[in-house]
Amino acid sequence: MPQAQSGELGVWLVCDGEPLAEHRVKRREEDSVVSCWVASVPGKTFSIRLENRSADGIQFRLFLDGIETDVDHFIDGNEPHIDVTGIIIGRSDTGKSVHKPFVFSKIKTTDDAQTAAPDLDFPDLGTIEVVAYRVEMDYAPSSSDSDEYIGSKSMSNTTRRSGAHRRRRKNKRQSHGKQKGKAKQQAKEEQDCNTGCSNKNLLSDTLVHESSVKSSYHRISLGEDEEIDNDDIVTKPLKLRCLDEGEARAIFTIRYRPKEVLIASKIIPRPLPEDIPEASSNHQRNSTEPAAVPSKRPSGSGEHVRHKRPRRGQPEAAVADTRETISKDPIPQHTPKSETDSDLELARLRAITSDTGEADRDSTIARDNSQETSEETAIERELERPSTPDGDLIQPKIETFADLNLGELEASPPTLSNGDELPKKGQN
C-alpha cells in the first residue's frame, strides 16, 4: 500500500474487494511523492481508497489519465478512509442518484484524425494521480442544503507543481474559448455541481489516434449507469481553506498496465511454468502405484502384441481393450506334415550329408599332404648344416657377448697362428 508522511496518508486501488498488488514502490521523502505499478485487467471495475490517519483535515484531488475530476474528497480525523468507486452524473426520474463506476478498458484507436478525440491528455494515459492538501473547514453545512452541493470547489483556483494540473487548466481555457464574465463562470460551476463531473464524457470510450498511444494499452472508462440511494453518498457543501500556502502534503502516482507489459518491462518477475507443479504431483502419485507386469509375446507370432496399460479408475475397460487386441492377432495353430513331405525332407538331408562327407575327406587328404611336405623340408635343412668328421653338427656362430661361455674360454686359451699360446698378463 503506498503511504507517505509516516503512514498517516495512504492511497491504493481495490478490485474485487482486495487491494491490487503493487510493484516497484518508490518514495521520495523530501517532497512526499510515492509511485508504484499495478496490473490492470480490462473489464474489471475498481475503486480508489483514500486514507487519512492524521489529526488534520485532508482534501484529496484525483487525476485519472491526466484528467482532473471536478469533485474533491475531504477526510478528517472522524473518518479514517473512503472508497471512491466512480462519479455521480445526476439523478434519475425516481429521485435516486445515477452512478457510473470506474472500469479498466482497452484503448480504442483510429487512424482518422477527424474522428479521434482531440483534447485528451495522452502522456498521462495509464496513470492515476492523487494529490493531498492539508485544509481546515470554514463552513459547516446544514442538513437542509446537504443535497444541493456535491464535493468542494474551494480549491479549484489553487496552484500546485503537478504537470497534469497545469495541462488540465490549459485544456480548460481552450475548451471554453473566449467565454467571459463572472455570471457565466458561476453558471458553469453550478452546472458542474449538479452533474458531479463536467468532464464525464472525456472518460467514456472515445476513439484516440493510434499515433498517440505509447505504452499504455489500458485506460479508465465509465461503466453502465447504476441507481443508488442518496443515503449511500456523502455530498455536503464545504468551504475549506488551504494551509501550507497551497503546497501539497503528498502526491500519489499509480501507473497501471496489462500484466504482459509489466512482465516484458521486467517490473513483474516472469512466473514459473504452470505445468511444473502438476508434473511433480503426477510423479508422486504414480510412484505409489505397482509397476505393470509386461505381457509375454505369443510363441509363433510374427508381430509383437502391445498390451495397453490399464488406466486408473477404468480397470474393466482396460481389460476389455486387451482382450480385443489379442483376438485380432490369434496364435497360429501347428499343422502336421504329410508322409510325402517327410520323405522329401529326409532325402534332402542325406544329400547334404553325403556332400559334406566328401568335402571333409578331401580336406583331410590335403592337410596330410601338407604336413608331410613340411617334415621333408625340415629334414633337408638339417642335412645341409655342416658337421665334424665324427658326424656332430657345428653350432652356429655366437652373435652377442651375452651368449659367450666364459668358462670354456678360460679352459682353452686362444692360440697364435703357429700354434703357440698367447702370453698371459705379467709375462714377457
Automatic annotation (TrEMBL):
- Residue span of region Disordered: 141-194, 272-428
Stretches of Basic residues bias are at: 162-185
Domain DUF7918 span(s) in chain numbering: 11-144
- Biased composition annotated in UniProt, kind: Basic and acidic residues: 336-348, 378-387
Record field: compositional bias (Polar residues): 279-289
Q: What is this protein called?
A: DUF7918 domain-containing protein
List the lineage, top down: Eukaryota, Fungi, Dikarya, Basidiomycota, Agaricomycotina
